[in-house]
Prior knowledge:
Helix 2 runs antiparallel to helix 7 (104-122), helix 4 runs antiparallel to helix 5 (68-85) and helix 4 packs antiparallel against helix 10. The protein has helices at 6-12, 20-28, 38-41, 49-58, 68-85, 95-98, 104-122, 131-134, 136-154, 161-177, 180-199, 203-215. It is mainly α. The longest helix is centred in the C-terminal third of the chain and has 20 residues, at 180-199.
Amino acid sequence: MTADDPAASTRRAPTGTLGTRELFDALATGDPEDHLRLEDILAGLSRQVFGMLLFVSTLPAFIPIPGVGGAIGGPLTVLVGVHLLVGMRKLWLPRFIARRGPRRASLQAFDRMLGPWLGRLEKLVKPRLTGMIDHRAASMFTGLLLVLLGILLALPIPFTNYLFGGLLLTYAFALLERDGGLMLLCWGAGIAAIVVFGVLSGALATAATQWVGGLFA
């Protein structure tokens, strides 16, 4: 099997409505040298597609190299947020993003690191209060928070990558498991993080000003 064999990657891409741990284990199983493209990872997913993209997008935040995780995970998190904010039901990825993705070895390393945590969390979550996931206004609010959190993740704020990474993984878990109760907790934690690290520090306002200024430069 080669890293460039899309058919091989697709055969290993999880489908259906598996649990989060099952989905992640399926992705992590196989040749460590395989390169998994995002379009293959997300193939066959419907309701879970945004949660899975957020899940995969958040993993670079745990790379112990300053600046790398945020530079990769931040924009992808913003992309997921924009999908939810504008009410898109199907995922759209630019071709240059869809054809990129992690090596399976990276997923295996994260599986070893996050597996026990995921196992414990999966025992607590279940589909409930699904209106917090499916309702248009709720989905838009989730999308707005993800956009803001993605911007904060991309900013070079010291010692926050793991914090934002853990929070965004919880958002992904709520989306994947359709747990509206967990999403409510995510909203509260997300608002607190945005206020503390974005509003009070001025980082979010500075970044937004620079982005807007760049549009008209």
